Amino acid sequence: MLLLFAAALWGFGNVAQKTVLEHLDALNAVGLRCLIGGLIVLPFVLTERRLPTGSGYLPSLARVGALFATSVMLQQLCYLGATVTNASFLISTATVMTPLAAWLLIGERPTMNLTVAAVLTVVGALLLSGGISGLNSGDLTAIISAACYAIWAVELGRHMQVHGRPLTAAAAQFLGGAAIALLFGTVEGNLSPAAVSAAGLELVVLGVFSTAIAFGIQIAALRFTSASHAAVIVSAESVFGALGGAMLLGERFSASGAVGGAIILAAILSVAMSNPTASAAAPFRADSIQAPDRAPVFAAEPSARAGDRTATN
């Protein structure tokens, strides 16, 4: 349910992600969005200062942060050339890329149910978007962004299972992404007080809801479920994005779009019901820390990785 809520925040935030470019360049929009999200989460980092981390914590955190910054910047840049429809569909291909990345990077073999559900979500997203018309540089950027998101999700899941500290991970990602994006934006962008003021509403929506809350939820949830399961559930973003377009921009649902949305929701329901996590969560424990280079630990199902610890999504 938390991941579905995050998907709703991303979906409805897609409108702001497009309209913010009317006032700011892509890199400064990403930088300010991440800065807002990071400042919101930062005060809560102190609550985790006494939690154990394990060896390899800082390199793992840096790796996750770099992947996040790359993914979110590429996603914003793709809107310069891609339509919202094309971008929404192409980025949703991360749903099928994530199980593949999990298999290649950490040896987590996807189940047949998960594979079918992932493929169905992409088919549903294609129907929901009404198809795509050709591919341009923006569309290719969206595909690369989806691949980066897939790798980021796997690395983030590995980091959370080994090291914990979800609020620290969130703050590091957001503030690191802000620093990188604003650094490049200063050289190439059009940042000014007037531009920031004009984009104020979009920045609040993106920084508070689509970044601090939505990504924060996903980061916390990956302690208790695999990146592949999470990828299918958050694919509901495309459904909520279509609803947002209809409600806020007057876009109309087609019959094929309604079928596509139904397919996505059915796939999500299938994965959610088959996810082998149980009903109660226990805090992160020092004795659950494993060495980061032990891939088989991550390939196991969440209940096996955490011993007697069980969790709810």
Characterise the protein shown here.
By secondary structure, the protein is mainly α. It contains 15 helices and no strands. The chain is globular. Helix content is 71%, strand content 0%. It has one domain. The C terminus is likely disordered.
Write the layout of secondary structure elements.
Layout (H helix, E strand, L loop, with lengths): L1 H18 L6 H16 L15 H22 L5 H8 L2 H13 L5 H18 L7 H27 L2 H23 L4 H6 L1 H22 L5 H8 L2 H13 L5 H20 L20 H5 L2 H4 L8
Helix pairs in contact: 1-10, 1-12, 2-3, 2-8, 2-10, 3-7, 3-8, 4-6, 4-7, 5-7, 5-11, 6-11, 6-13, 8-10, 11-13
Index terms:
disordered C terminus, mainly alpha, 313 residues
Tally of alpha and pi helices:
15
First CA to last CA: what distance? 7 Å
Strand content: under 5%
Structural class based on helices, strands and sheet pairing: mainly alpha
Low-pLDDT residue intervals, each spanning 5 or more residues: 277-313
Residue-averaged pLDDT: 77
Shape: globular
Alpha carbon gyration radius: 19 Å
Question: SSE order in H/E notation?
Answer: HHHHHHHHHHHHHHH
**Total number of domains:** 1
Mind summarizing the main beta sheet? none
- Total number of strands: 0
